[in-house]
Design goal:
Helix content: 25-40%
CATH class of one domain: Mainly Beta
Radius of gyration: 29 Å
CATH superfamily of one domain: Cysteine Rich Protein
Largest sheet: 3 strands, antiparallel
Order of helices and strands: HHEEEEHHHEEHHHEEEEEHEEEEHEEEEH
Distance between the termini: 81 Å
Bound molecules: zinc ion
Number of helices: 11
CATH topology of one domain: Cysteine Rich Protein
Number of strands: 19
Strand content: 15-25%
Structural class: alpha+beta
CATH architecture of one domain: Ribbon
Length: 421
């Protein structure tokens, strides 16, 4: 397919997940509706990741595509029907007999993802070593955390030109090269292993029998305490030692001389647990996908896509596609216009006055962004003779001492007493 046709075929998935509830706004959002070009909901303005949008299926396809044409193809399977690679996510189901009084019931816990290791004991121990609220137990806060991090750390629009908005053929080509390069050079998946075994392998021998028996023997309370003793392996992040018998995370790109506590295997920028241990290794640091890409390319503050065009603008410490430096409320183009930053988003003057301006305690009208104001304890006044007055005797207080009480200001104790008693 030539590039021209490829570009024509591209559309953002606007139907995808529409109507899904916002987990943050709850009832206040009528349901997810994708903005024309921003990756946010038109109804509540939260990101896609705040909504219960992506099914595990769609997430698996995204990660499958990430691993396509990499050395990690063992983690994906191609569906016979459509040939689309899908992530073979390792789901771990644990069953524990629970005895309550006389009845013995079986309690089943499903981890939506677990490290793909042969030895399930290692996978279980790995889970115990990460914070409870981040353990991806189906139906729990941890499973939601994992899904949100998948959306945040590995945006589909950082790897798939078809998820980007109106790219030129040249931008598509540049993006494809960029993705190919990071797949070849920096992308990796963590490995959960016992440091002793890694050391033994490096020395060219298998672990000694002595090592093995210490793992398999049933421990008395004393020997359990002994198993908690520190080993001489150190975590690359926190520099603390690993406890004897605990698994560590290794990153092939970093070399097997480095290891991490499972809870220390985090992105250098956002400090979040690297989702499914998918990392990007650069200059001696671990990054999540988003923050690796940010370290290589400018990202548009409007559409959240990486910018592959030479023409873009910088404003307010962020980068913007020229066509995307727009009012966050009405989408009008802001080049050459007056705008106000509201929560790091530019807003045009009419929208600011309509939606965000604070009103004056004196005249109750909105305060224009450019005019002088007096602000005190979250209350505002026009800095004029008409508005900033003593609430009792109407004496102008500009340049004077004043006594504030809630939204009122007074010139003197006497005036304050008259109004508040
Ligand atoms: Zn929302
Ligand atoms: Zn919404
Ligand atoms: Zn650590
Ligand atoms: Zn990050
Ligand atoms: Zn943009
Ligand atoms: Zn506007
Ligand atoms: Zn006023
Ligand atoms: Zn007064």
């Amino acid at each position: 397919m030539d590039l021209e046709n490829k570009v024509k075929k591209m559309t953002l998935g606007h139907e995808q997940g529409s109507g899904a509830p916002c987990l943050k706004c709850k009832d206040k959002c009528e349901g997810f509706e994708l903005h024309f070009w921003r990756k946010i909901c038109r109804n509540c303005k939260c990101g896609e990741e705040e909504h219960d949008v992506l099914s595990n299926n769609e997430d698996d396809r995204k990660v499958g595509k990430l691993f396509e044409d990499t050395k990690y193809t063992t983690l994906i399977a191609k569906l016979k029907t459509d040939g689309i690679p899908t992530y073979k996510r390792n789901v771990m189901i644990l069953t524990n007999p629970v005895s309550a009084k006389k009845d013995v019931s079986i309690k089943t816990v499903t981890y939506e993802w677990a490290p793909p290791v042969q030895n399930q004991t290692l996978a279980r121990r790995y889970m115990e070593m990460i914070p409870k609220e981040k353990q991806p137990v189906a139906g729990s806060e941890g499973a939601q955390y994992r899904k949100k991090q998948l959306a945040k750390q590995l945006p589909a629009h950082d790897q798939d030109p078809s998820k980007c908005h109106e790219l030129s053929p040249n931008e598509v080509k540049q993006m494809e090269q960029f993705v190919k390069k990071y797949k070849n050079d920096v992308l990796g998946v963590g490995d959960v292993k016992l440091p002793k075994e890694v050391e033994a392998q490096a020395a060219g021998k298998s672990p000694t029998d002595g090592d093995r028996s210490s793992v398999t023997t049933v421990r008395s309370p004393e020997s359990k305490a002994a198993a908690q003793k520190p080993s001489n392996f150190y975590c690359f992040k926190c520099k603390e030692n690993m406890r004897e018998g605990d698994p560590a995370v290794y990153a092939e790109r970093a070399g097997y001389d480095k290891l991490w506590h499972p809870s220390c295997f985090v992105c250098f920028v956002c400090s979040e647990l690297l989702v499914d241990m998918i990392y990007f290794w650069k200059n001696g640091k671990l990054y999540c996908g988003r923050h690796y890409c940010d370290s290589e390319k400018p990202r548009c503050g409007g559409c959240d896509e990486l910018i592959f065009s030479n023409e873009y603008t910088q404003a307010e410490g962020q980068n913007w596609h020229l066509k995307h430096f727009c009012c966050f409320d009405c989408d009008c183009v802001l080049a050459g216009e007056i705008y106000v930053m509201v929560n790091d988003k530019p807003v045009c003057k009419p929208c600011y006055v309509k939606n965000h301006a604070s009103s004056c305690q004196g005249c109750h009208n909105a305060i224009d962004p450019e005019v002088q104001r007096v602000s005190y304890n979250g209350f505002h006044w026009h800095a004029t003779e008409e508005c900033f007055l003593c609430s009792c005797c109407s004496k102008c207080l500009i340049g004077q001492k004043f006594m504030p009480i809630e939204g009122m200001v007074f010139c003197s104790v006497e005036c304050k007493k008259k109004m508040t008693s």
